[in-house]
Amino acid sequence: MAPRTVRTVLGDVPPAELGVCNAHDHLFFGSPRLPGQELRDAGAATAELTAFGAAGGGSVAQWTPYGLGRRAADLPPLARAAGVHVVAATGLHQAVHYAPEVLDRLRGRLAEVFVSELTEGLATSGVRAGFIKVAGGFHALDAHARWTMTAAAEAHHATGAPVAVHLELGTGALDVLDLLCGELGVAPSSVILGHLNRAPDPVVHRQAAESGAYLAFDGPSRANHATDWRMPDAVRDLADAGFGDRLLLGGDTTTAGARSVNGGPGMPYLLRRVRPRLELALGSELVKQILTANPQRAFAVGWT
């Protein structure tokens, strides 16, 4: 059996090398839903990642999937310059983020694209993805979500790569688990559920954790969601129930205005403000586990 490693943009590394991990964020991202706020500036991305490293960060998982401006060729020099590991994503977001002709070109070969990006590289860059990102809908899974998750499951079975899921406003977690793990046979321990802080339902959180999936609380920079002020209670409840080993934290910076280099909270906010607040509620040892040991397991794969 191959040793478990994390596939970063600079190559496979032992999980312990990730250090303190921002388990969900974006260095580059562009969508027609956010005109004028695209993350395209390589200099700003380098400055943001460097600031995260200066705050004690060791790695970032970039959840930007296929077709949304990943700028794969820029990721290795950026990671080297900042001294921070970057794990890139393959996958596909909700249909609203793409022109219809882009989706049409992927019909019948989506799983093949995912596998190629995990094993050979993103486009012609040679930079290999380390996980698959897909997305659900608001309290439901539409045909697009089922198509992308079916392809993600195929790619997972072919490679072992973890599957990270954008939950629209934090909803639909149990439907996602029913599809990915129930119908499609993905091990729950290979599933990361994102944005659970946006729908702070303790019953759903508990049921999702009981499945064995990872639960990501990953949007502290978004003031319009129930993030910082409710996150400590939600995380503490899960930890007290015995699920401290299933929790992840991230920043999810998706617009230029949210970057710290542009006056927003940005990536450093996770360590500058969220970490000490959680340490008050949970204790430093549990927070250290959530930021280090948990993501090291969540993103580690015995690549096939």
TrEMBL record:
Record PTM N6-carboxylysine, positions in chain:
K133
InterPro entries cross-referenced by the UniProt entry: Metal_Hydrolase, Phosphotriesterase
Task: Report residues binding Zn(2+) 2.
Answer: K133, H166, H195
Keyword vocabulary terms for this entry: Hydrolase, Metal-binding
Task: Report the co-factor binding details.
Answer: Binds 2 divalent metal cations per subunit.
A molecular function (GO) held by this record is:
zinc ion binding
Which amino acids does the record list as binding Zn(2+) 1?
A: H24, H26, K133, D252
SUPFAM superfamilies named among the record's database cross-references = Metallo-dependent hydrolases
Give the domain of life. Bacteria
Co-factor requirement: a divalent metal cation
* Family, per entry: Belongs to the metallo-dependent hydrolases superfamily. Phosphotriesterase family.
Q: Which PANTHER family match?
A: PHOSPHOTRIESTERASE-RELATED, PHOSPHOTRIESTERASE-RELATED PROTEIN
According to UniProt, the name of this protein is Phosphotriesterase
Species:
Streptomyces dioscori
